[in-house]
Amino acid sequence: MDLLRLLTCGSVDDGKSTLIGRLLHDSQLIYEDVLASLEADSATHGSAGDQVDLALLMDGLRAEREQGITIDVAYRYFSTARRKFIIADTPGHPQYTRNMATGASTCDLAVILIDARHGVLAQTKRHSHIASLLGIRQVVVAINKMDLVGWSQERFAEIREDYRSFAKALDFSEQSFIPISALLGDNVVEPGDHLGWFDGPTLLQHLETVDVDTGLDPVHFRMPVQLVARPDASFRGYAGTIASGTLRPGDEVVALPSGLSSAVERIATFDGDLEVAGPGRAVTVTLADEIDISRGDLLVAPGSEPQRAHDLDAMVVWMAEAGAEPGCSYLLQTANAVSNCTIRSIRHRVDINTGSQEQAPGLGLNDIGHCVVTSDRELAFDPYSANRATGSFVLVDRLTNATVAAGMVIGAASAWDRTPDAALVRQRSEISDAERAIRFGQQPCTILLTGLTAAGKSTLATALERELFDRGKVSIRLDGENVRMGISRDLGFSSHERSENLRRVSEVARLVNGQGLIAIAALVAPDGEVRLRARDLVGADRYVEVFVDTPIEVCRERDPHGLYAMADQGEIPRFPGVSARYDRPTDADLRVDTSAQSVDECVEAILRRLTERGFLRGPSTP
User: Fold this and answer.
1) Is residue 520 one of the residues assigned to a domain?
2) Long-range contacts: 203-207, Cβ < 8 Å, 24+?
3) What is the pLDDT of residues 174-197, one digit of tens each?
4) What residues in the chain have per-residue pLDDT under 50?
């Protein structure tokens, strides 16, 4: 039987502990002496009236029983005829959000409880965001306390739609909705008598049959060295837990950061040597050569080494009362090392209600933010989406030794955040801006045409280039497809790579503007924050953003390459407008719609805006 790791989460008093107790009780997995103890405790600490308070099975701390809330994470192991389970009961109180993140960090599935009386609350959304960030791709939304809303099918449907609408911005591959009453047991293990209108499985039936991707990478070998085992002069081994990949005697491994390599001689365990070891296995590895490997080093397979950098682009969940600001210093603890670090910048904070990104000078308790963190030593890491063990970290307060944040690595900080080498000196032209304006009869600017695929951006860029040429103006067109065939041919279509593509185009546009020319860029550019960075790089006084706001239905009809259909079928991952977010510009300099306006009308509108801002005139007059 396989093992499913799951957690229960949601807002306070939504019934998480009661649900786990009901699962164990109705599956007849509670010993008689434990049940007798629960019955006695229910008389003094229970909150379920005359019934046994099954929440007490999980809430074992005195403070938990006195207050009727979960404070710490409690784990229970149980099994049925079909599957083994490790279930984590996590607290719903905002004060203990850090404990929820701890519980979720090792789970493959989340059961998110919602009180049918209250619906989707702020803590429901916060826990959902954290589960998504921590790599949980499948959730079961258990709408609890249906007995308190008269077993209403309409109320169930209302909450289901509310949650679906909110969760569109999250990276969940599957969402299942199940109405239950944890107190009375309906639809937890057995269907019960009150939810006849629901034709889906019970919660336990779903958990027993759901196909969960554990996210373990069987290919790229990673093992952080936790201990150098040296019991006597004849044995030197390197102990740790394999984070990903498989290992066999004879395999070559590379030790980082030294880069030295050797072959594996033995894979030793307490129960004897292994011929093969995979993810999650604790082993001691001996090597054919005496190379310098210390605690904190990382053993990897040659040819598939992790990224290495001082600067990390990461999402963090802030867990401390004291807020975070750029410039604050902490200890950074990864799976294999501790280093000194500084929060260099806070890119944005996530609004948990809408999923939108908002500018913030700092992060407060329970905030989720996108940060750039700089370490004093080079770090070896993988993106969290590829490897949880080597893609995660915690920030620790130097004075109190308290954990203040949990971090998930997106990748090495992009070139947006890198400072040029101090030895470099920008070379100045001897031709002034005024001289160029006289020669070309224009003021330089960069026009970014942004919109969904097949919105008409390239068509407008080509027509605009033609009209400017006919008017005697000098421009350069940077079409998205042309750029990807040249300076961005090494980039894919992840959000990180799309960001880098726009940065490169913006750098070219800035150079072109410096020569007095007009740059026309036609790109999807789906990330609103990255577009703001492009504006800052080019210069707000030279930047014109045109939102090609063609409805997605029209884009689908026009799509000459069938990209939308392939995205619908999952053949193209993270496709803006389908399986990835497109941030609609809210402050664009101009909005056009090629489904309602002709190409000539759109071009004329752009030219009018360029004229209004003075770009189509010659030299500026005092």
Assistant:
1) yes
2) 203/19, 203/23, 203/111, 203/140, 203/142, 203/178, 204/23, 204/27, 204/80, 206/140, 206/176, 206/178, 207/4, 207/6, 207/83, 207/85, 207/109, 207/140
3) 899 999 998 899 999 999 899 999
4) 61-70, 621-622
